[in-house]
Write a structure and sequence with these properties.
single chain; 99 residues; four-stranded mixed sheet
């Protein structure tokens, strides 16, 4: 990259969406700029969901969750404007399209 290069990201307006997009796209990009692995940020782990979570047949879904050991506890999430679910979350539960 050239010296003086600049980059811009357009993030969604809803707080939960902006946070998830920053974690999934901006942080890995910044890690890669510093010589790190784009795919290593954020850390990805598998776990066992403690409650059923409904996926979507047309897109991947992301839910805030609370991870404790191998257990992943989906948090009640109403919409991407939901500010109350984010503080107790310590991760995201990614449900692939069609799952």
């Amino acid at each position: 990259m050239r010296r003086g290069s600049s980059f811009a990201f357009g993030l969604p307006g809803n707080p939960a969406s902006a946070l998830v997009c920053a974690d999934l796209f901006v942080l890995p990009f910044l890690a890669a700029l510093q010589g790190g692995d784009f795919n290593a940020v954020p850390a990805r782990r598998t776990g066992i969901a403690s409650a059923p979570v409904k996926g979507s047949p047309v897109r991947r879904r992301v839910f805030p969750c609370r991870r404790e050991g191998d257990a992943v506890h989906p948090l009640p999430f109403r919409s991407s404007a939901d500010l109350y679910t984010l503080p107790p979350a310590n991760g995201y539960l990614l449900i692939e399209k069609g799952a």
